[in-house]
Amino acid sequence: MQKKKNKKGYIIAIDGPAGAGKSTVSRMLAEELKGMLLDTGAMYRSVAYFGLKEGAKTEDDFAHTARSLKFDPSHDRAHLLVNGEDLGLKLRTPKVSSLASSVSRYKTVRDTLTRRQRALGRSWSKKFPVVLEGRDIGTVVFPKADYKFYVTADPKIRAMRRFKQLQKAGAKTKLSDILKQNQERDEQDSNRKHAPLRCAVDAVVVDTSRMGIVQVVKFMAEHIRAHETLTNIQG
Ligand code: DC
What's the confidence (pLDDT) of residue 7? Predict the structure, then answer.
């Protein structure tokens, strides 16, 4: 992994399967480091969401949608605005989740979003630590990221967490359905031809099955701060 001297920002890659706690951990870590978060899954979800609206059917259609979207941080840097809008739960419906996984198999869609993720990550990291959350950040988007974590958890625990999250949001779902959907998505994400879900060889693996979120974030922040201090002393 590359270390630049005297830089203000740096790149943190967080990858892992669906429902491992990546989103919450990434958001909290970005807050803790007073940095920025790029939720790359939200970018794939946006392509699915707008593609559905526009009647996209083919890879070319979805690639066109990917190229046409505008991504910006919100004023408080806490959310990603897509075409000026915080789409929130509209991106989290089962239909959009499943289509996002399908469109993420398309090479042309991936190439476009990867390019845009690199541009956003590079520009934001001039001023802030940037947490990029996804499936291929440490392996493809930023293989030389300053820090890499692979966040995972037992499949049953992951399903239970998502179930509670959806219940809290008022959605009616069955635990067994979520377990099945997660399995299907993991399989699709791990076995696709282009940039499949993989743990980078140099990533720190964080199994959150028996760790609380606060504990996970503390561990990551301490890991980063210890290395930053060392780099500054050595630099
Ligand atoms: O992290 P998420 O569940 O919001 O991601 C939605 C889908 O997008 C997921 O099925 C896989 C895909 N994805 C991807 O292929 N590469 C990324 N960097 C992020 C997400």
Answer: 61
